Amino acid sequence: MIRKYLTSVRRGLVLAALALVSWLDLLLELVGFCILCVGLVFAYTLALEGTRPRAALTRRLAGRWCGIEVESPYRPAPPAPERERDGWYRDGNSLFKRSWFLRWTKRFEWISDDPATGRDLGWQLWNPFAGLVLVPAVLLTGPVALRVYGRWTRWWLGPRPARSGDGWIKTRLKALGFQLGLVGLSVAQLAMAVPTLLMLVGLVPLFPTLVIAGRSVTDTLRREAKNWTGVRIDRPYLPEPPFPVPRADGMYQRRRQLYDTPWWPARLDRYRWVIGDRATWRDMAAAVVNTVVLALLAVPTAVLVFFGFQGLLALWVWRPIARWTDTAWSTTHWFSMIGLPEATTHWQALLLTPVAVAAFVAGLVATPQLARLGAQFAKLLLGPTEASRLEQRVARIKQTRTDASVAQAAEMRRIERDLHDGVQSRLVAMGMKLGAVEALIDSDPAEAKRLAAELRQTSSETLTELRLLVRGIHPPVLSERGLSDAVRAMALDSPLRASVNGVVPRLEQPAEACAYFAVSELLGNAAKHGEARRVSIELGYDDGLLRIEVTDDGKGGANAARGSGIRGIERRLGVFDGTFALTSPLGGPTKAIMEIPCQLDPDASSPRTSTSSGTA
């Protein structure tokens, strides 16, 4: 018994000493974060990865010494980037000649987005205090203190089940953080707008460069407004001018002026582009207006929350510490700013506690609504106008026209090849057999009958093959019953356990065919490459926009750079000015969201084409 107690004390002292090292890890990560702020992403990534071995050692010791097994909670590391056939590395629409930048960016996203990383940081902050408490606890209770410390370690460093949602306080604290984040981005936008305007007075050639740099900050505000509040703010900018193309004589023409190099024409086109774009001046006006309005929405709530939190600290943390240490650094006069007396006793602190709690709660109550209101106000100036929407649509149509022509030509070649190699060959063989039947019908009737039976079988097979070919061009169920029933029929034929939710009305037939074959491609990828067992398909149509969400429980890791299927979907949707968003982390799940602008089918009122029709 004594030996067991001494062993527990020795192990507790070792764990306490190891806990103090956590502050050194936290300091290392703080240095890495400071280096990250100047653009060196790899430093913060190395700092986070360098501290994980200490956490892994604590997990092993908790299982060996405390009897509490702690599993590793980290997500699997991302795979190394794969080079494409043309020698480039692709990430979305960006190409890289070498993989090091892409590799470090992926590792930074992997380790910073992992929830276990945040728990590691919290554990490193509070674990030294737990280590200091462990020393007297293990001297008093022995193995009991070790088991409590093991449970503490498992709570911080072990895997946790996914939570369905945040609590009331956490949700509103996050909303307050979103408000302050929008204010900070507006201030950054204003900081970029001021020198940009000064360039119009002095260095005019640098004006387009600063405008582009300012747009990156504004795009960050748009993106985070969508991520934080759900308010979508589209980019309103006119399409970038194309690079100058030389004439037949090698000169570059801009209006009536010829240039030997494309530098001046390109510079003048870009200057005219940013000057003539109304969104440039709307961004600068928004930098001033949004900063003021968002600050007016966020500052009162932040002041109330800070006042209430600081008041609670003053009443129940700083006041007792000042009383026990006989010092005068208590801040209970915090309440004198609103005309309330200073709290010197516990009873007075109890009377002032509801005031602090009321201020804290009052500041948090409306933060989600205020954050969304601020994002909606920012959308007024940062969102696109009808003119910019039309220009963007025209530019997108020009970009997708070539892809549509190439895809149509490839489809025509496929149909021609299938007809030539399949149906045409069978028809030629049937013609030859018919000639043989004519020659044998008088001299050898039995052989003629046998050939006629083979002809009947061949005609049946040809008809089946022709039906399959037609179904590949446009499924009959899609024409007769619409997209909802066609997708349900496809789900029944799929080897996966597929569920289809939602009903959409009859839409334009080209849009229905585009959506049908895109869903078919996603189901095929989930079964063939994703090793999925279940798949969920959500259909919806609202205000001229068809939305389809396909989610499977496969292994994830889908990437457009490693296959042509996803690129084919993007090209198919691009013809209809649609969008395709894919989320596929390693380990799954894979979620694909497709949005296609389309209109209702004006001929959908007939019983044959109605989805509520009794005909199949």
TrEMBL record:
> Could you tell me one molecular function GO term of this UniProt entry?
kinase activity
Q: Name the chemical reaction catalysed here.
A: ATP + protein L-histidine = ADP + protein N-phospho-L-histidine
The protein's enzyme class: transferase
Keyword match Iron: no
Q: What is its EC number?
A: 2.7.13.3
Keyword Membrane assigned to the entry: answer is yes
Q: Which organism is it from?
A: Amycolatopsis speibonae
- SUPFAM superfamilies from the UniProt entry: ATPase domain of HSP90 chaperone/DNA topoisomerase II/histidine kinase
Q: What is this protein called?
A: histidine kinase
Q: Which domain of life is it from?
A: Bacteria
